[in-house]
Specification:
780 residues; mainly alpha; Serine Threonine Protein Phosphatase 5, Tetratricopeptide repeat
Length: 780
């Protein structure tokens, strides 16, 4: 009993060493009392050692059919698989057989060692299996000495048993089963050697496991491994790899890491260790791989055994970080890929580093790598990355030129090109574009039916004093997106400039109760002027870096462009200052979503003479002058300076001035993406209910988008729910909601939302329906 208890404690200690804290529930089950360990009909620990040595203590068998592990080692414990790994109810264990003497021999104090397999493997010159058998017998019989010449091992006196061993050595297991059954039928007193049955069981289990693995029946692989602990040793590395793969494919990455780690902690074959890291790198994430790499051995020259894999591993880690910006990899891996890009000729290396830097807002560094990749091999990916850098650096004209060749390569390429054109048309002062460039941009906008770019074309034409062309572009934008208030406002301005009173009245009637600035067109109050200014709220000319994975635009499937197709603008200098128009906003995440500016109510108060082209310290201004300067700076798209001016008015003003200043400062912060600052500013003075509601809607929209960006999908849904209580949910936010449900695997809810959004003709909603179906198919 003492020896059995000691063996049990030893095995439990080894189990802790194998995966420690990786499976706390399994460890809790294992560390039960000694009585429970001995008497529990459903033990939690599957102990290796179905074959027992002369003292009754379990030992580690090495099946002869696989490559041997470290020779001469008797301390290796198998990889532990628990009942929890299989998902099956615990079974009452069968007591392992005890090795008995060969038939016809007498019982002696020293057990007889069956050396038959040595002769078979030596005769076939199968050195790997011969060494595995020697290791197995040494583990079973510590006092045993291998024969000098295995071929000289005498044949068994039992010719039928000799034939059975030959069938086993040849891998003819079905024939061996039949031979055993036939002899038992003819000779009821005969019993096959327990050693033969044991090895046959293991060999058949190995064959079943490999077959299940090849058929991708991963749960079956785990179940067979858990039921055959003799397969879970260094002598069976291929089996360990297959079990690790099965864990990974069934989303148990921690257990997959344990299996790979077992090989690195216990096995010494250099080729197998190297292959283990290569296989693990295909299924484990960055954190799991760091755990494995910590087991690296050092060579005699001081180099690491995995140094030959470092380049490919670095590429893989950087690629993983590109897919998930929350992953923080060691800078040494990034620097290694940068060195490869500098010293090598592969455009792919430069692209990896370019996307890594861009997605972490290091635009200058990203631009360098994208240009290098593009010089080596002009591709859609390199051009897209460079275009996004140029858009972020306020160089949309070069971005448009870079992307034009690749605009039709993919949806991402098309959307990046459309983002470049929209930002180009929104530049202030407007650039003078050649007629060929305008012609090609116009053709792409009409083909894509992109309302945001059409609107920008309208403002661009108006800036060059071409109201009729502007009107047609605004009409086109509204035909694709009827609820686009900025386009409606641009249309009413253009018609008013053309003295089209009936057209103005028609727009005002259509938007009655929905837009104060359209209703008050022609009035010279500060209310109207403020309403014009606020059209810019929330505008960004850059592109969210999350869009580099899928920079999609929101397309509304509305009636085709009206018969009066928009004309191409001629770029003559306007005689008057242009009216600022909002730039295109592109905001895409795992799902394509565009953030639009919040509708806003007017500010109040009498406006003083404006002038803000020079930079001054607003602290010296009176509250009213500071307020006017803030609105002026907003018109010039200088929101941070505007926020400072509004802050002075907020600090020193009173009444309506403070309300206007708080409202203006919130809008300024929203424009630069400082949502929390905007929320604080909105609380600095009492706001009219409509203004407070509009700001709250905008803030909740931004917070929902930020949470989605950060993969906090439940938080995003919470913000969307709060927003929905204040305002009907836009289609783009419905798409975001659908993808949030999809990411948390609420497929039914996601399908319902996408179906509702798809009824508007939204392409991203249609794409979302396809993504839900694909995800369901993958899961089931």
């Amino acid at each position: 009993m003492r020896k059995v208890l000691a063996a049990t404690v030893a095995v439990m200690a080894v189990a802790v060493a194998v995966y420690g804290l990786n499976d706390p529930y399994a460890l809790r089950d294992r560390f039960s009392s000694a009585d429970s360990a001995l008497n529990d009909p459903a033990p939690k620990l599957m102990v290796m050692g179905r074959v027992r040595g002369p003292d009754g203590q379990p030992v580690v068998p090495h099946d002869v059919d696989m490559h041997s592990g470290p020779t001469g080692s008797t301390t290796e414990a198998p990889l532990q698989l628990t009942q929890a790994d299989t998902g099956l109810p615990a079974q009452t264990p069968v007591q392992p057989p005890v090795t008995s003497p060969a038939a016809g021999s007498s019982q002696s104090s020293r057990p007889q060692v069956d050396e038959s397999a040595l002769r078979y493997f030596a005769a076939r010159n199968d050195q790997a299996r011969l060494q595995a058998e020697i290791s197995r017998l040494r583990a079973l019989y510590p006092d045993w000495t291998p024969p000098t010449d295995p071929l000289a091992v005498p044949q068994n006196g039992d010719s039928q048993l000799e034939g059975m061993w030959r069938l086993y050595a040849d891998g003819r297991f079905a024939e061996l089963r039949k031979a055993i059954a036939d002899r038992r039928a003819t000779d009821t007193a005969w019993q096959p050697p327990a050693d033969l049955l044991e090895r046959l069981d293991v060999a058949e289990a190995r064959a079943r496991l490999i077959n299940a693995s090849d058929l991708k029946q991963y749960q079956t692989v785990v179940e067979i491994g858990a039921g055959t602990s003799a397969l879970l040793t260094c002598a069976e590395v291929d089996v360990l790899w297959r079990i690790a793969e099965a864990f990974a494919e069934t989303e148990r990455d921690g257990r997959a890491r344990d299996a790979y780690n077992y090989v690195l902690k216990n096995c010494t074959n250099p080729q197998e260790r190297l292959a283990t890291v290569q296989k693990a790198s295909a299924v484990l994430d960055y954190a799991g791989m760091q755990d494995l790499l910590s087991s690296e051995h050092r060579n005699e020259d001081g180099s690491g055994e995995f140094d030959g894999l470092r380049d490919d591993l670095s590429r893989r880690f950087v690629a993983e970080a590109n897919e998930n910006t929350e992953i923080r990899i060691a800078e040494t891996y990034v620097e290694r890929v940068e060195k490869l890009a500098d010293e090598g000729k592969l455009a792919s290396d430069a692209l990896l580093v370019g996307w890594y830097r861009l997605r972490r807002d290091d635009t200058d560094a990203a631009e360098k790598w994208f240009r290098m990749a593009r010089d080596r091999e002009d591709s859609a990916s390199a051009s897209q990355g460079l275009a996004l850098c140029l858009i972020a650096k306020k160089s949309p004209q070069e971005a448009e030129d870079v992307m034009y060749r690749w605009r039709d390569d993919s949806t991402n390429s098309k959307d990046t090109y459309m983002a470049a054109t929209a930002n180009l048309l929104a530049v202030m002062p407007p650039p003078v574009l050649t007629e060929p460039v305008l012609q090609r941009i116009a053709a792409e906008v009409i083909e894509a039916k992109d309302a945001a770019s059409a609107q920008q074309f309208g403002w661009y034409a108006r800036n060059f004093n071409q109201p009729q062309t502007a009107a047609r572009w605004f009409e086109t934008a509204l035909s694709w997106k009827p609820d686009d208030e900025p386009s409606a406002y641009g249309l009413v301005l253009a018609r008013n400039q053309l003295n089209d009173r009936a057209g103005v009245a028609a727009v005002q009637s259509q938007w009655q109760g929905r837009s104060v600035r359209i209703a008050n067109l022609g009035e010279t109050t500060e209310e109207t002027l403020a309403a014009q200014r606020i059209a810019q709220a929330g505008v960004q000319t850059g592109v969210n870096q999350q869009a580099v994975q899928s920079p999609a635009q929101q397309y509304a499937s509305q009636p085709a462009v009206n018969a009066n197709a928009p004309q191409v603008i001629t770029t003559q200098r306007p005689p008057t200052l242009p009216t600022y128009a909002p730039a295109r906003v592109q905001q895409t995440l795992t799902a394509p979503v565009r953030r639009s500016a919040p509708a806003a109510s007017p500010s109040r108060g009498v406006r003083t003479e404006r002038g803000c082209t020079t930079t001054i310290d607003p602290e010296g201004l009176a509250p009213g002058a500071a307020l006017s300067r803030g609105w002026c700076l907003m018109e010039l798209n200088r929101p941070m300076e505007a926020a400072d001016a509004f802050g002075v008015a907020l600090k020193r003003g009173s009444g309506e001035v403070r309300e206007d200043a708080a409202y203006g400062q919130s809008l300024a912060y929203l424009r630069v993406g400082l949502t929390d600052n905007a929320a604080v500013a909105a609380t600095q003075a009492p706001l009219a209910r409509k203004r407070a509601s509009e700001l709250q809607v905008a803030i909740l929209s931004n917070r929902a988008t930020a949470a989605f960006d950060a993969a906090r999908y439940r938080d995003a849904l919470l913000f969307l729910d709060q927003r929905a209580q204040l305002e009907t949910e836009r289609v783009d936010l419905m798409v975001m909601r659908g993808y949030a449900y999809l990411n948390i695997k609420r497929y039914g809810d996601a399908m319902q939302v996408f179906e509702a959004a798809a009824q508007t003709g939204n392409r991203d909603a249609l794409r979302g329906l396809a993504d839900v179906r694909a995800a369901r198919n993958n899961d089931y």
